[in-house]
Amino acid sequence: MSFTDKAKNKAQELTGAAKERIGDMTDNERMRGEGASERSTAQARQAGEHVKEAGRDVKDAFEK
C-alpha cells in the first residue's frame, strides 16, 4: 500500500469518526450512520491491504 493510499484511508476514517461524533452531539441519526459507514469502509480497506502485504511477505520468505 502506498503512502498516498494509507493517508487517504486514514483521512476517510477520521472524517467518519468526526461525522459520527457530530451526529451524536446533534442527535442526528443520519449523520451518525454515515460516519460509522465511512469509518468502517476505511478500516476494511486498511485490513485488506494488511492481508495483501502479509501474503507478499510470506511469498518472499518462501522464495529465498
Gist of the model:
This protein has 64 residues and is an all-alpha fold.
Task: Outline the structure in words.
The protein is mostly helical and 64 residues long. The chain has one domain. It is 92% helix and 0% strand. It contains 2 helices and no strands. The radius of gyration is 16 Å and the shape is elongated. The mean pLDDT is 91.
List the helices and strands and how they pair.
Layout: H1 3-26, H2 29-63
Helix pairs in contact: 1-2
Q: Class by helix and strand content?
A: mainly alpha
Strand segment tally:
0
Provide the helix percentage: over 70%
Taking all residues together, what is the mean pLDDT? 91
What is the number of helical segments per DSSP (H or I, 4+ residues)?
A: 2
How many domains?
1
The first-to-last residue Cα distance is: 22 Å
Radius of gyration: 16 Å
How much of the sequence lies in strands comes to: under 5%
Uncertain runs are none
Largest sheet data: none
What is the H/E string? HH
Based on the model shown, name its key terms.
mainly alpha
